[in-house]
Amino acid sequence: MSKILNVQHLGKSYLSGGKSLTVLDDISFEVASGTSYAIVGPSGSGKTTLLGLCAGLDTPDTGTVALCGSHLTELDEDGRASLRNKKVGFIFQNFQLLPTLSALENVSVPLELRGTKGAANTARTLLEKVGLGDRTHHYPSQLSGGEQQRVALARAFANRPEILFADEPTGNLDEETGERVVELLFNLNKEAGTTLIIVTHDLNLARRCDGLMRLKGGRIFNSETASHP
Amino acid sequence: MNPEQNSAGLSWLFRMAWRDGRASLKRLALFMSAIVLGIAALVSIQNFGKTLEETISGQSRELMGSDFLIDSDHPANERVQGIIDSLGGEQSREVNFVSMALFPGKEGSKLIRVRAMDGEYPFYGVLSTRPDVASERYQADGSALVDATLMVQFGLQPGDSIKIGDRIFPIGGSLLEAPGNTVVSTSVAPAVWIPFNTLDQTGLIQTGSRLQYNYYFKVDPSMDLEKLYTSIDPVLDDEGADLDLHTDTSRRLGRRFENVGRFLKLVAFIALLLGCLGIASSVHIYMKEKRASIAILKCLGASRKQTMAIFLIQIAGIGLLGGILGAALGLILQQVFPQFVQDFLPVELAWETHWGPVLLGVGLGVLMAVLFGLLPLLKSWFISPLSVLRISEGDTRGSKRLTAFVFALIALGIWAAAALLLENATRAFWFVLGIAVTFMILAGIAWGLMRLIRRFFPHNWGFEARQSLLNLFRPNNQTLVLVLAIGIGTFLISTLYFTQDMLLARAEIEDDTPAANLILLDVQAEQEGEVEAMIRPRGLPVLENIPIVTMRLDQIEDQKVETIRKDTTSTINGWILNHEFRVTYRDSLIPSEQLVDGEWISTFEDKSGPVPISLSDNVARDAQVWVGDTLVFNVQGVLMETVVASIRSVDWGRLQLNFSIVFPEGVLEDAPRFHVLTTYAEGETESAVFQQELVKSFPNISVLDVRQLLSAVGDILEKLSWVIRFMAFFSILTGFIVLLGAVRTSKFQRIRESVLLRTLGARGRQIRRIAIMEYLFLGGIGSLMGVLLSLLGTQLLAYGVFELSFTPSWIPFLVVFPGITLTVLTIGLLNSQGVLSSPPLEVLRKEGV
């Protein structure tokens, strides 16, 4: 199986109070196309930073990231943006919908950015798929947390991404709603054949993935391949 | 290496700009109102100026009443008469002068301007009278046309009488409108038209009478007037006459309004600049609120250019909308101006729309919005998509080089706009430099202040006071922005006040004017004793008795005046060569004079050699003579050699008789002369009765009633100051919006802290006190610096632009400084009210902190 994400010797430090703080140190791993992979670890272990680097939202200090065949360090900011638009989807803990756009418009944005014709129709179909066919003209502030995350899911799958990064997708939801969103996420993922990378605290959610990596103090503590199919 | 960009085109950018903007309209209203007010002020002034300019130049013949005129202060001599006769066409003669009028059967007398006319004047424009036929008949039936206001003032009706000099005229009708007349020009000495052939019967043509001879012409339209001017004006100059084309009149009139226009444009431009500050401050807040959206868009694959373009389109769109609304408001506003200034204008102003100023206004709206929005907008470029994750990636300040580039663009933009408005690139450059220096000084003060507080932090102060000070230099503080915005706003507002104050004070009559309130003009030498004898028995004092002798310059140094006139390289001012000087003699300086050079000679004892005289500095400058130079005067036929013994500065603004040339005693006592006497009559009735009796006995004497004059001047000033205050109101309103923007800018940091303090158990009163002290400090420092800087700025303006001396009033210190400090405090507290009165969690949720 081809590798959609290849991370080698990744390192990242931030300046904090004038001192250099190492957040990630010598991280290397690979993710095969079409699989799901969880990154877990305690707060401050560097998992969100790792997600940001893998998705091309930031640049590493050392090491390389190859995403969908492109070396991110060789692309500039706009090049990485273009790659994200064409091949990457995102789910965030706090949904990150554009507050001034309706649900339908939020889902349409990635499609419009690609210049896809009939973006609104595709977006409407996706919203129906996540059970929000009757809320297309609602603004984020008029939707519940679960509904907002479902709009985010529809948006994430709108451009048929090759890889989807999810950052604590259930972190802001109650247990029941969280479970429904996770169910929807895995179903959509399976249907689209997308690679899924999840950053989470939730070990139950992590164990549903094909692979799992534990981070501690910016280093890989251990990694495993799940036993389930 | 860059893979292909996403495929979203321009239409998507516009769609996104609209989608995002429609929800933010309320927030953008502040931004737009700043533009609307600035542009409205500018368009109204520009459009009004254009209307005025076109009306004046389009009606130049109507203003003069003829194609051209020849004027002189003495009757046409043979040579001038020869020229007049040779010009052909339709001609009209006029002699005009100031005199007193009595109204038989009515109480009172009045200073009037007599216009003795013959011919069909005016050839253009209207001579409007009531009844209409009066204007056609007055020449034939020997009646007078009397200014309509004067008719009302004295309760006169057509058929009543008016006595001018020795002759009583029947009043043919009231004069409603005549070429070149304005309410203001006729308020001191209203016009009375009489037939030319009755002039001699008035007996008013005497020594010292200040007469103006005008010859009006209507010629074939094909005649080249400019060519005529070039060929005959030099000849007329030699004879002490002058040729004025109708275009000269409108040009002169245009120039008269230029100064006021320039000042009003400056006011409008200040309003626009304040508006620009409003733009920068509003866009700053707006972009702060949009930070998350920008990161999301980037995360979804939008490029930096695309995200910036979305907000640039919004800002340009708001600029366009603000420009259009501002221009529309400006057009409505300019309808108000004629009401304020119509009395000053000799033409009827019609409300017109000029597309030039409108387009300029709309264009400036877009340009200024984009320019001043660019700096905060630029930050969007540096917002990392990483912000969507919970990582604080901190710095979005961007590159220093880009920031410097944007600042340069802003300076260039202001300069271009200023140059366009002031029609002077150099003046615009100094203006921009002044603004830049002000910014730097204020920024330096704010920076220095924060350093000082850090260094000498009062650790022993109470918690609230310490916390309010700490707030000034917390991370991401807005102290610099706030002090700058408040300081610049105050600076502009109080500079405007100081300038207005300086201009109006100049025009005001000072309190220490001489006690005299009646000035008797044209008292003949032989009448002097009789007039004094009439004044004293009434218990009135003769305060001054000033002898006046008229003379002309004959020679400067060793050059005859005629030779200088012909010398095309001479830089001596022409008026000096043609002017009939009214000269006095006395033994001492008066309070309005100061010796600047040479020695004051009180009496000419040594009767041999040239007479030592004193010149005012302006005459010395225009004649290009210094102490020790010789001048020969023609004193009514007798040549008299003089030497400049001293040069005086004269305060011409004082309402008293000032002279440019003063002789010592012992020279002119026997020359043909007339006198000006001044006296003081306490009550208005006493004054009126005295004037009436004086005019009855001495019809040639004119009385200038200072009390009436002051009230007329007061009315004029009141009208003028209304225009200025009206425009200043715009600047102040815009300044208020800027303050609102600046305080809102810092709201976000404040909310975060206040909520935290409340969560930790701080009482509302404590948080309120912290906020009060912080806002008082910011408002106080910003506004005090603004007022102090404006003192310096106005001093420079007074010296460089208006050439006036400037004594600052206390008002900006007593009103503007505390006023703005309290306004900052009020706006700040109103803005924090929600935080203070709501539970912390609710605030956190609402503000998305």
From TrEMBL, chain A:
<dbReference type="InterPro" id="IPR017871">
    <property type="entry name" value="ABC_transporter-like_CS"/>
</dbReference>
<dbReference type="InterPro" id="IPR003593">
    <property type="entry name" value="AAA+_ATPase"/>
</dbReference>
<dbReference type="InterPro" id="IPR017911">
    <property type="entry name" value="MacB-like_ATP-bd"/>
</dbReference>
<feature type="domain" description="ABC transporter">
    <location>
        <begin position="5"/>
        <end position="228"/>
    </location>
</feature>
<dbReference type="GO" id="GO:0005524">
    <property type="term" value="F:ATP binding"/>
</dbReference>
<dbReference type="Pfam" id="PF00005">
    <property type="entry name" value="ABC_tran"/>
</dbReference>
<keyword id="KW-0547">Nucleotide-binding</keyword>
<dbReference type="InterPro" id="IPR003439">
    <property type="entry name" value="ABC_transporter-like_ATP-bd"/>
</dbReference>
<dbReference type="InterPro" id="IPR027417">
    <property type="entry name" value="P-loop_NTPase"/>
</dbReference>
<comment type="similarity">
    <text>Belongs to the ABC transporter superfamily.</text>
</comment>
<protein>
    <submittedName>
        <fullName>ABC transporter ATP-binding protein</fullName>
    </submittedName>
</protein>
<keyword id="KW-0067">ATP-binding</keyword>
<keyword id="KW-1278">Translocase</keyword>
<keyword id="KW-0813">Transport</keyword>
